[in-house]
Structures are given as C-alpha cells and as structure tokens.
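Researcher: Batch entry, complex prediction.
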Amino acid sequence: MRLLVCGGAGFIGSAFVRVRLVEHGDEVVVLDKLTYAGRRENLDGLDVALIEAGIEDAAAVARAMEGVDAVVNFAAETHVDRSIAQPDAFVTTHAVGTWVLLEEARRRAVRFVQISTDEVYGSIAQGSFTEHSPLAPSSPYSATKAGADLLVASYFHTYALETVICRGSNNYGPRQYPEKLIPLMVLNALAADRLPVYGDGMQVRNWLHVDDFARAIGVALAHGRPGEAYNVGGPDECPNLQVVQRILELTGRDESLIEYVTDRPGHDRRYSLGSQKIAALGWEAQVRFADGLAQTVAWYVDNAWWWEPIRSGDYRAYYQRQYGRALG
Ligand code: NAD
Ligand code: TYD
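Model: Structure tokens for the complex:
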C-alpha cells in the first residue's frame, strides 16, 4: 500500500509508520508541520518521504495525496493543558485541517482513517464507553477532536467517502513528548526534580502501549467498516498517583519528590473504553501496563540523546508557564 500518514513525525504517528514499514512493507509519505511535538528524529532510520507542511495547507495536501491508497490522520495538537492555556491551534488543526484533508480525500475517493481519542466521550465514573456513547468532551482539546470526528462522519454520510475513526485511550511508550504524564514524571524523577500531581492524583486513565495502538489502527485500516468508529482501550487502568509511585520505584527515587499541585480545570476523572468491536476484527492488546511502563522507563534512561534537546529547548519556557507558580 502507499499511505499518506499525517502527523507521522509525532509520538504515535511515527510508531505507526515503523509498524507499517517493518511488518507490512508499505510505502509511506509523511505530511507533518513539525510543531514543537513533531520531530524528524522520530523517523530516523525509516525509509519515508517527509513533507513539512500543515494539514490546513490545501496545496501541500493535494500534492501529498497524489497516488496514495489511503490517508491516516494523526496530525493534531495533543496536550490538554496547552488547549486550556491557548486553544487557537487546536481549532485550526482539528477543524480546518481535518476538513482540508477530507476535501482532498473526497476529490480522489481515498480511504480515510481519522485518529481520535477516548476523551471525546468525556469522563465515566464506572464501566466503559462503547462506540454508541454520546460525545461529551470537556476540554478545548477533546471538543475540537470531537468536532473533527463529526466532520469525518459527515463525509461518509454526505459524500460516501470511505471513513473509519479509531479512538484510542491514553498511550505511552518511547518518543512521547515530555509534557504528558508518564515521560514528564520519568524525566523529572531522573533529574530528582519534583513531580507535580494534579489534585488528589486519584484520576484514572486506561493505559495503552503505543505499539498496540499502532497495530489496532492497521487492523481498522484494513478491515474497518466504512462509516464506523472503533474504540481501542488498553488492558489496564491505573490511578495517576500509582503510576507516579511506580515510576519513582523504577527510577530509584522516593516519594518525597511528589508535589500535589492545583488541579487542572475541568479535569476528567476517569476514562475507560470497551474494545470489543475492534477485537472482533482480530485485534488484541499485547502489552500489559506493568511491563510496558518498565520498558518505557528503560527507553528514556537509555535515550537521553532524544530528550535532552527537548528539556533544554522551548520546553523549559512551557514548563515554567505551566508549573512555575505551583512548584515555586
Ligand atoms: P504528538 O503531539 O506526539 O504528535 C502530533 C503530530 O502532529 C506532531 O508530529 C506534529 O508536528 C503534527 N502536527 C500538529 N499540527 C499539525 C498540522 N496542523 N499539520 C500537520 N501536522 C501537524 O501526538 P500523539 O500523541 O502522537 O497523537 C497523535 C494522534 O493520536 C492525535 O490525533 C491524538 O489526538 C491521538 N491520540 C493520542 C493519544 C495519546 O495518549 N497521546 C490517545 C488517543 C489518541
Ligand atoms: P496527560 O498525560 O496530560 O493526558 P490526558 O490529560 O490526555 O489524559 O495526563 C494524564 C493524567 O495525568 C491526567 O489525569 C492529568 C494528570 N497529570 C498530572 O497529574 N500532572 C501532570 O503534570 C500532567 C502532565 C498530567
């Protein structure tokens, strides 16, 4: 297959590209704006063509889609805290960008896979969301992602474009930008910096290894029914505080580094996805959270070359804005 992977220089997109090249022998074109989160290094050693452009750039999208069999769209602004501080780019990329991609896909009648998130359903106290659960997003991040999902669905209903939506739960693994919980806590623990836990730390996330998500997306790409959405949840859920405690153990630090800070506004308490529908297509998670977390910590320990330029670059300004007051 010849695939256009939008946002393929990011955390999950690059894991997906790796799986497609190694396990499927696909030909891959990556279209990526290379924002703070997109990195050429994520594609090191992979034989891909990289086009540096935004998905909202119609001319670049038209060129990139030439001759492809399918489009998989990961391109997004992905951090909830940044969406709370400054939602602008979330609206542009998720609403306008997704629409530009859909228009070109419609013109060429190309199969379109949209990568979405459990956060479009909002918070759930007990049980798990199904694909029929109503969308009830809480943050500008999840609201704009939900908007993108609805646009995608409209192109199926209105124009009969072959669309599939994949909604993943919280991913973790190598190459995740250290604004997210797990890499942030790992790098802070390694540096013996304080670990900022929001609120009481009892919020629950459903952890999915990035390679499991990448393979699920491959299954949806090959076998997903047009017009359908597929939830992809991880095999284990865990309260944030327990995740942080485990990271402290794995890095040989003690709990005195934990600092409880003011909670995130509108913070979703728990996410949980039922994955029966994607399982019926033949997908199953391979990585349990305990093993995957230990492997992920080991990856960050062994790959300082990857994160040191981030920690000493723009990320410092972001960290100061986000945590400076709370952590003094
Ligand atoms: P990421 O922030 O690591 O990567 C996003 C990528 O998109 C980067 O390479 C960035 O440069 C690129 N990008 C951003 N705006 C763009 C634009 N306008 N045009 C082209 N490229 C642009 O994010 P990620 O964690 O890899 O997430 C990828 C996708 O998976 C997103 O759509 C996200 O909503 C979804 N998702 C993420 C998670 C998670 O836990 N990280 C869970 C479920 C779903
Ligand atoms: P995050 O990685 O931002 O993912 P999401 O908000 O998309 O689930 O956060 C995961 C959980 O960790 C969430 O409940 C917020 C919490 N969290 C902290 O307690 N402290 C932090 O510094 C960060 C970044 C997140």
